[in-house]
Write a structure and sequence with these properties.
The protein is mainly alpha-helical and about 180 residues long. It is built from eight helices and no strands. It has one domain.
Length: about 180
């Protein structure tokens, strides 16, 4: 249970981890963002709160470089979605073949139609919805969404998601430092 609590509240341990692991924190952050976006079962990882905390640390910790962290974590998010899409593409065929009272074929067909018409915007917006973020690329892959369109919106969405949240954390970190300077 302690490990699960550590993972879900990872952002609280960041200052300690930076002290202990130094530059390895970049690899650790990359792996967390990658895992959250690449594997459906990792939806519980802290995405948004982690990005805000990382941004705040970029404002306060000299070794944390804002530009580098935005590029690195954008890459992690892009690659994670690509892996998740491919998993959906491979396993999605099997989902369509399953005869189950829980998985109705007409729902799968509706999902396919939905991603054909609105998949691009879903991939973009899903980045900002924590639980949906882990499932959208899998659904896109299993629905056979066009990979080129998926990739374009994946890249745009990953960069916007990371840049907005890390920058917001950075600005909040600077605000806290500024308030501390006033007192």
């Amino acid at each position: 249970m302690e490990f699960f609590e550590f993972l879900t509240g990872f952002e609280h341990y960041l200052p300690i981890l930076i002290q202990q692991y130094g530059l390895w924190i970049y690899a650790i952050l990359f792996l967390i963002i990658f895992a959250e976006t690449a594997f459906i079962f990792m939806f519980f990882l802290p995405g948004d709160s982690l990005l805000l905390a990382v941004g705040a640390l970029c404002a306060t910790v000299p070794m944390m470089n804002l530009g580098f962290i935005i590029l690195l974590l954008s890459l992690a998010a892009m690659l994670g979605y690509m892996v998740n899409y491919q998993i959906g593409r491979r396993l999605g065929v099997r989902v369509f073949e399953i005869k189950s009272r829980f998985i109705k074929h007409e729902h799968l067909l509706k999902t396919h139609e939905y991603f054909r018409r609105r998949g691009a915007i879903t991939i973009l917006v899903a980045r900002f919805i924590p639980f949906v973020r882990s499932f959208a690329p899998f659904a896109a892959g299993s629905s056979g969404m066009n990979y080129t369109i998926f990739s374009i919106y994946n890249i745009i969405g990953a960069f916007i998601w990371i840049a907005v949240l890390v920058t917001a954390g950075y600005l909040l970190g600077h605000t806290v430092m500024f308030i501390g300077d006033i007192e």
